[in-house]
Amino acid sequence: MAIAAATCCFTALTSTIKFRCYASSQRHLATTSHRSITAITASEHSKRRGSSSSSTDKANSKNKETASQKKKYRNGNGGSSESEKAQSTAYRSFGLQRKDKKEFQFDSNEHQIESGNLQDMAFLNAVVKVYCTHTAPDYSLPWQKQRQYTSTGSAFMIGDGKLLTNAHCVEHYTQVKVKRRGDDTKYVAKVLARGVDCDIALLSVKDKAFWEGAEPLQLGRLPRLQDAVTVVGYPLGGDTISVTKGVVSRIEVTSYAHGSSDLLGIQIDAAINPGNSGGPAFNEQGECIGVAFQVYRSEEAENIGYVIPTTVVSHFLDDYERNGKYTGFPCLGVLLQKLENPALRTCLKVESNEGVLVRRIEPTSDANNVLKEGDVIVSFDDVNVGCEGTVPFRSNERIAFRYLISQKFAGDVAELGIIRAGSLMKVKVVLNPRAHLVPYHIDGGQPSYLIIAGLVFTPLSEPLIDEECEETIGLKLLAKARYSLARFKGEQMVILSQVLANEVNIGYEDMSNQQAMKFNGVRIKNIHHLAYLVDSCQDKYLIFEFEDNYLAVLEREPATAASSCILRDYGIPSERSPCLLEPYVDSQGNNQVTELDSLGDSPASNMEIVNDGILWA
Questions:
Q1: Which residues, including other chains, have CB under 8 Å from residue 124's CB and lie 6 or more apart?
Q2: Are the C-beta atoms of 433 and 260 separated by less than 8 Å?
Q3: Judging by DSSP bridges, how do beta strands 280-282 and 228-233 pair with one another?
Q4: CA 485 from centroid of its chain's CA atoms
């Protein structure tokens, strides 16, 4: 399979920081002094975020270029990464480019608008430049942060003292500032909400001076194929506003690199470069049709950029208004299979050429209480579902079934038409966001940890896998992270990250990245549960059982006595993260945790559609 690395264009100006977000997909952000961001998905094709930097602005250039001059501006944004050299298809990642002429080359079929016709239009003044200082966690040393770095991106005014930008532009932010076009004053902005799955963030600026004479943008309709589109922002190449033009190439459910999610996206051929992230895209009437956020780079493809459509933006804003915070896009929580084969449909007693087969149901979803494996979903809210998992979309178009699910909000009820053992029936399912066993992003920004006699425990997460590298994680643990499902809300895969050497833990110093299965015979549910078990233990020994029945045994009293010395020697402020100081509440009650399902029966937890006809809803 081809590996896809999606391109997020956001400019980092300082420090070297690496962190990776996976889904069963694997995606990673590599942040360097000239920031580079790469995303890789599970089906091994993902899309990249269009982030921050600054791009060439050919303002007021009314002179026509000759053909030879146009050839001079060939797209030279960064060479291939190692994965791209090994694979023919990749979503190219890039950050701040060197200011050589070679680095500012554009493809001959990329069109840059002559801004003489647009520079006086009011809607351009609503686009602002975003300056963000980021401080990412150190997932391998979870009690500390990495060195800060800075980036730039774009945003635009939507009224009521608020701005819209991309979530990845303000990820792990410590300070956010914005600057208007033609102004040299930077104003401090507050991040009100971040939608990781839809890659949208909502900002506010309290200073009234920032809003003087401002005309917020109005969200327009969903465009049609071949509609003209204009992308405005502050990409690499200069400090002033930049305008590029193209057309709408495609509208379909697409992979969002930042959130490892699949939502409606607009594909365009206008140039999107580092720094365009968060900037608006306009139609010919000057209406905002979406937010630029990622670009596809490959040796076999050119000029493929992506815009978050206004339908997704409106969903994000409505969610925030309804709940006072962002709750996320819901999912159905079922693994589906296409029913293209006539014999398969006949075997399942499906008479018409429609429906998708339920292969697996997530234990944490409401669908687990309603649907059964072997059911065939033939309709969603009275909209017929085709045998390829698609539904009608506008005139003469079809779109992935999960588009209908994305139109719902967390807690909404959907009516499904299903065929079970040949009988047609209607059932209702409550839709909620997915509970990921291995999260792509850490809520609150800082991972939790627990240190017991030098043994460092932390939940497994995709950024930790990225930071540690797959080779050090081990194939078995990596496979479980990719293919296992959460059996209950709050479940985590707790791993022994490393051992801080001390006399009390002699013989265990080389242990690292092993899953902790049980403590004193009790199966571990999550990191908070482990902390509770250790605190309440009165036994002489602390017995930790890892994968493949590997044991680590410590005497409780010497282990407790050694903790303060170990923390002092390694300069660690506390033996546990602040979140573990709260009282432990068992979300499962007295329910027993069953053993992990076999890997062969567990689907990739973020797989949407792959070559064998399987899709997640």
A1: 118, 181, 232, 241, 243
A2: no
A3: antiparallel
A4: 18
For residues 117 and 234, the answer to whether their CB atoms sit within 8 Å is no
Profile the chain (617 residues) by mean pLDDT over runs of 10 residues: 45 35 30 34 40 41 39 33 36 32 36 46 87 94 93 93 95 95 93 94 94 90 93 90 93 89 93 92 92 88 90 96 93 93 92 92 94 95 93 90 93 95 94 90 85 96 86 83 88 95 93 94 96 95 93 95 94 94 76 43 39 48
Tokens of 32: 């360097």
Of 222, 299, 236, residue with least CA distance to 272: 236
The pLDDT tens digits for 242-268 are 999 999 999 999 999 888 889 999 999
**Closest Cα partner for 582 from 527, 516, 524, 523?**
527
CA 256 to each of CA 295, 299, 401: distance values in angstroms, whole numbers, following the listed order: 10, 21, 17
Q: Are 253 and 407 in contact (CB under 8 A)?
A: no
Nearest to 463 by CA among 148, 136, 95: 136
Could you read off the pLDDT of 70-91 as tens digits, one per residue? 333 333 333 333 333 333 333 3
Q: Which residues pair with 154 in a beta bridge?
A: 129
> Could you write out the DSSP letters of every residue in 59-124?
TT--SPPPHHHHHHS--------HHHHHSS-------SPPS-GGGG---TT-B---GGGTTT-GGG
Taking a C-beta distance cutoff of 8 angstroms, is the pair 137, 145 a contact? yes
pLDDT digits (tens, 9 = 90+) for 207-222: 999 999 888 998 999 9
**Catalytically active residues, by annotation:** 168, 199, 277
Return the pLDDT at 298: 80
Following DSSP, what letter does each residue of 516-564 receive, concatenated?
Answer: EEEETTEEP-SHHHHHHHHHT--SSEEEEEEGGG-EEEEEHHHHHHHHH
Using alpha carbons, select from 402, 407, 405, 465 the residue that is nearest to residue 429: 405
Residue 389 tokens, joined: 């998992």
Q: What long-range pairs does 550-556 form, CB within 8 A, spacing at least 24?
A: 550/514, 552/455, 552/496, 552/505, 552/508, 552/511, 554/452, 554/453, 554/455, 554/504, 554/505, 555/504
User: How far apart are the C-alpha atoms of 213 and 126, rounded to whole Å?
Assistant: 10
Give this prediction's pTM.
0.78
| Residue 408 burial (CB count, 10 A) | 20
Helices (H), 324-386: 342-347
Count CA within 13 A, CB hemisphere, residue 171. Answer: 34
As to burial, measured by CB atoms within 10 angstroms (0-12 exposed, 13-18 middle, 19+ buried), residue 93 is buried
Beta bridge partners of 616: 335
Q: What is the DSSP letter of 332?
A: -
Which pair of tokens denotes residue 196? 């990781």
Each residue's pLDDT tens digit, 449-508: 999 999 999 999 999 998 887 677 888 888 888 888 899 999 999 999 999 999 999 999
Q: What is the pLDDT of residue 615?
A: 54
Rounded distance between C-alpha atoms, residue 154 and residue 288, angstroms: 14
